[in-house]
Amino acid sequence: MKATEHEGSAAVSGAGTEERRRNPGRSCIVDGSGLSLQTTRNLIATYVGLELSEDDLQRIHARLLQQLSQIRQLEALDLGEADPRQLHYIADRRLVP
Amino acid sequence: MNDPAFLPVHELAPLLQRRELSPLELTKAVIQRIERLDPRLNCFITFKPEEALEQARRAEEEIARGEYRGSFHGVPLAIKDNIAVAGWPTTNGSSLMAEHITDYDATVVEKLRAAGAIIVGKNNMHEWAMGVACTNGWFGVVHNPWDEKRVPGGSSGGSAAAVSASLVYGSVGTDFKGSVRIPGSLCGVVGFKPTQGLVSRFGQLPPTSSNFDHLGPIVKDVADAALMLNVIAGHDPRDPTSVAFPGRDFAAELDRGMAGLRVGVPSNFFFQRASEEVGAVVKAAIGKLAELGAEVREVSIPSLEHMPLLDTGYWTELTTFLLPYLRRGPEAFADRSIWERTIVDQLVRTVDTMKTAQLRNLIRAELRRTMEQVDLLAAPTTPTTAFEIGTEDRLAAAKPTRNQSPITVLTLPFNVTGFPAISVPCGFDAQGLPVGLMLAGRPGEDGLVLRAARAYEQAAGGYRVPPMAQEA
Question: Would you place residue B395 in the very low, low, confident or very high pLDDT band (cuts 50, 70, 90)?
Fold first, then answer.
């Protein structure tokens, strides 16, 4: 694909988006359904230093699965990576285009 | 003279300037109204009547000496409780900050004091500004003046309820996902989120929501919003997100009307997410804009459909601040969902935050292109009117993404993009609950947004007093 085809609005709302949606294999995140409660418990203990109760673990686990699902969808989007000219990871606060 | 309690600032100010009304008597009346009505509404976390009276005496003396400072001189206001007022607690609606007392004012407070305003107290809010219900477990539930069984919206719910019930003449709120406009809409008052960077966030505590947060007026009408913006806008080197806009008078063009303005009505995202009833009220209001001379046309903004995916990186700044408190357990958070969200947020990767920033820029770019065709966008502020206290869990269960409660979904695009947006009352649903019309403009064109909202407001009738506030 030519770089110019990814300029501006072609990304996200363009056809490339649908293509990537149909190809979730692009995501680095594996299907969240494989994440066990015990893995969640270990992750939270390691990264946050919290030993969760069973009730809390269930709720946190459900939220984490939802978060992983969102990350997969985000990764599947065409954010214009094919054209590095359009790529900025800072917030654009310009008052004029 | 009409009861001064119900007047907007722009009608009150000339009376104070001409000394037909005394700041001291006005403040005494405000204190009496707060003491009488706030036990029902719970709008205040901090209320300082003695300090307010002292400020009022000073204002009275200054005006008597001919040292009138402008529209807010001698006018009682309040401030949301995540904005610093020197010597008073700034709690953020949390017990964790209940003893946090600053020896400095936030920039907006400094500016309002310099303009002669009287600060009577700090408004109740949703804990950590991370919710819309204001069912605050530490400082009590805030009630909507239009129906005390219902929420005021949030997170600046105490501010909007206080203004709606005419307990104060205005308040300053913060808007992270709609927290000025949503309670404005649900309480039938005006909430204005200016262009990002126009109003300093110095003294908003903690300032850890720089990417999406804004400070803005919650007032009785659009003219008051313009007057307050004139006071609080301006570059501030103490706020790294502050932008040096050219100075201007936001009230100067208020009365130029709608003629010649192009209003875009989004064909996707907004009305599809609103209830039929809210959509119908807002469409009628847009019809009024056309009657006033606006050219109304349909526009499409497809990238907004991806807005829910921004949630992944949205909270990271704020939850980073909360990290040290996590080990105190869920008991440290009255709204348990904040504790849970903060934990899960620790597992968001940097790459996810970067991708949400890129998505945000693409949405912003598309919105910019859309707004080359039109001067303003018009849409509902909220998908529904105020919901009943205690039903937020049921609503949360239906929410489309982990953090995005339905009521914030329509305001969020203008936090993401930083574009100015206002909510102006535009009617009522069948239950008598207020509906808000949201008008958004291009960045830096806050004056144009205010002008259009004022034109609508003048045609539609402006501020209405809730029945419970008339009883007093």
Answer: low
Which stretches within B315-429 are classed as H helix? 316-322, 336-345, 350-373, 392-397, 412-417
Of B309, B331, B299, B294, the C-alpha closest to B409 is B309
Cross-strand bridge partners of residue B427: B435
ipTM of the complex: 0.86
Of B431, B440, B446, B429, nearest in space to B379 by CA: B440
B-chain CB neighbours of A97 within 8 Å are 368
CA-to-CA separations, B39 to B19, B47, B126, B142, in angstroms, rounded:
32, 12, 18, 10
Q: What are B225-255's pLDDT values in tens digits?
A: 999 999 999 999 999 999 998 888 999 989 9
Interchain contact B370–A (C-beta under 8 A): no
Residue B155 annotated as catalytic: yes
* Extended beta strands in B98-241, E state: 118-123, 135-136, 140-141, 170-175, 190-193, 214-219
The answer to whether B93 touches B127, Cβ cutoff 8 Å, is yes
**CA-CA-CA-CA torsion for B416, B418, B420, B422, nearest 10 degrees?**
30
Quickly count: other Cβ atoms within 10 Å of residue A19's Cβ.
Answer: 12
Residue B131 is which amino acid? G
Q: Which residue of B has its CA nearest to A79?
A: B359
Compute the distance between CA of residue B103 and CA of residue B98 in angstroms, rounded to an integer: 15
- B127 and B154 Cβ atoms separated by less than 8 Å: no
- Residues of B in Cβ contact (< 8 Å) with A89: 354, 357-358
B393 close contact with A: CB closer than 8 A: no
pTM: 0.93
**What is residue B170's three-state secondary structure?**
strand
- Which chain A residue is nearest to residue B196, measuring alpha carbons? A93
Q: d(Cα B9, Cα B70) in Å, to the nearest integer?
A: 11
